[in-house]
Design a protein that fits this description.
13% strand; binds NADP nicotinamide-adenine-dinucleotide phosphate; alpha/beta; Rossmann fold; 295 residues; 9 helices
Length: 295
């Protein structure tokens, strides 16, 4: 791995970002129409798919995020990268984190670093395993930590390769983690949110879930799938629940280094990204159901 993209293609987003503040952008969906969410069909239908931008409302978003009471947030993939940084930021703001990842040592190290460790539930679990997600859901019920917000963040990317040269097991890993892993979480956690009659589901998408690039076809396919899955889910959810596809922008993580090589260092750090992402996530409303947003 390890070479920067050719051309000005923008992988997980456009170009090196040096933003002064978070830009909330809403992508135009396949069926852009007016945004008048009044019932579950409309909410999930065209509701979130309007174009436009929330740019300029950073102060409003920050105020809404700050005004929100403590939430319990499930984040998959907290052992490194975006998930870890988001977990630390949310905990710093007083929210409780339920987090998982496959590797035990990084989870222990997060436990040692996170604010108020006793408030959180960080554990080893693999989103590719349906039974593992069932166990996690059972555990959060027992611990009375049913999430108010789910961030389906765990993800993987294929090593840069032409589509026909991607080994079958690598293609499987991308699909099993990014698509089926998200579905495994939804299968066991949405029913818990339905019981509570509220919940925000945030599925991590990508610039490559709305565009394409050479040598990352499995990843692109998986993130386009996340966009479609999220829009369908949004149409199914009753009032009180919402689903959003969220592209995090371009951030210097192991995943970015996998496809960009050393150029990944040109992009924002996870520490720069996390406060913007946390504010945005905490300020999302039910009216955003079905939207495709970008940090
Ligand atoms: N970085 C970017 O610029 C960027 C851009 C667009 C979209 N995204 C999306 O943002 C999300 C996070 O990306 P990242 O850059 O932070 O990636 P990363 O640095 O590679 O981290 C991925 C995280 O997911 C976890 N994970 C992977 N497979 C898992 C599994 N089967 N079960 C549980 N956890 C699993 C990893 O932990 P373990 O290996 O310990 O399990 C790790 O904590 C992904 O969905 C990615 O597609 C990132």
């Amino acid at each position: 791995m390890g070479r920067a993209p050719r051309a000005p293609i923008s992988p997980l987003g456009p170009k090196p970002i040096r933003r002064a503040r978070c830009q909330y952008t809403r992508s135009r969906g396949l069926h852009a129409c007016a945004r008048t969410p009044t019932n579950s069909n409309q909410r999930g239908g065209a509701g979130g798919m309007t174009s436009g931008s929330k740019s300029g409302v950073g102060g409003v978003a920050a105020a809404r995020a700050a005004a929100a009471g403590p939430r319990t947030v499930l984040i998959t993939g907290v052992s490194r990268g975006l998930g870890r940084a988001l977990a630390l930021e949310l905990a710093r703001r007083g929210h409780a984190v339920v987090g998982c990842g496959r590797s035990a040592d990084p989870i222990r190290s997060l436990e040692a670093e996170i604010a108020s460790p006793s408030r959180h539930f960080l554990t080893v679990a693999d989103v590719r395993s349906d039974s593992s997600m069932a166990e996690l859901a059972k555990a959060v019920v027992e611990k009375k930590q049913v999430p108010d917000i789910i961030v389906n963040n765990a993800g993987t990317i294929n090593r840069n390769n032409k589509t026909w040269n991607v080994p079958a097991e690598e293609f499987d890993a991308v699909v099993d983690t990014n698509i089926k892993g998200t579905a495994n979480v939804l299968r066991h956690f949405v029913p818990l949110m339905l019981q509570k009659k509220h919940g925000m589901i945030i599925n991590l998408s990508s610039g490559w879930g709305r565009s394409s690039a050479a040598e990352v076809a499995p990843y692109c396919a998986s993130k386009w799938a996340i966009e479609g899955l999220t829009r369908s889910l949004a149409k199914e959810l009753p009032p009180g629940l919402a689903a959003i596809a969220l592209s995090p922008g371009v951030v210097n993580t192991d995943m970015l280094a996998s496809c960009f090589g050393t150029s990944s260092a040109l992009y924002q750090s996870t520490e720069q990204w996390a406060p913007k992402a946390a504010t945005m996530i905490l300020s999302l409303s039910l009216e955003d159901n079905g939207a495709s947003l970008t940090v």
